[in-house]
Amino acid sequence: MLNPNPARGEVVVPLAGTPRRLCLTLGALARIEAALGLDDWSALPERFGRLSAAELLSVLAALLDGGGEDPAGLDAVSIPEAVAAVVAALAACA
Fold first, then answer.
1. 20 within 8 A of 67, measured Cβ to Cβ
2. 18 - beta bridge partners?
3. How far is Cα 5 from Cα 69, in angstroms, rounded to an integer?
4. Does residue 5 surpass a pLDDT of 80?
5. What integer is the mean pLDDT of 34-48?
6. Position 44 confidence tier, pLDDT thresholds 50, 70, 90
7. Gap between the Cα atoms of 4 and 43, Å rounded
8. How far is 50 from 69, CA to CA, in rounded Å?
9. What is the pTM of this model?
10. Contacts of 65 (CB under 8 A, 6+ apart)
11. CA-CA distance, 55 to 44, in Å (whole number)?
12. 38: number of CA atoms within 13 Å, CB side?
């Protein structure tokens, strides 16, 4: 069982039937900015409202990597699961 570290902003969410740890680290944030073509993180909230499927996968992969997880195998993740996972990871950082 994965035990998230809430002090670090980690969450554990089910993705394709498997619990996975996500975390918004500085490295993950930099990868997300690059994937979305942003100059800085202040534009993230507006940009998240219109993500393509490829961008959603990139964001999810960055958050998994930040949680120390291998982002491989995301093809089996449903859109609702991916969206819920991203929301949970971002909420854990608030």
1. yes
2. 15
3. 14
4. yes
5. 89
6. confident
7. 28
8. 26
9. 0.92
10. 27, 28, 31, 71
11. 12
12. 19
pLDDT reading at 8 higher than 80: yes
**Over residues 72-92, mean pLDDT:** 94
Between CA 31 and CA 36 the distance in angstroms is: 9
Could you give the residue ranges of the DSSP H alpha helices within 1-94? 26-36, 44-48, 53-66, 79-92
Burial 45-77 (b: 16+ CB within 10 A, else e): eebbeebeeebbbbbbbbbbbbbebebeebeeb
Q: Any idea which of 39-43, 58-62, 87-91 has the lowest mean pLDDT?
A: 39-43
Q: 6 is written with which tokens?
A: 């809430």
pLDDT surpasses 80 at 94: no
Query: Residues for the chain: how many in total?
Result: 94
Which amino acid is present at 53?
A
Residue 92 near residue 11 (C-beta atoms within 8 A): yes
What is d(CA 80, CA 82) in angstroms, rounded to the nearest whole number? 5
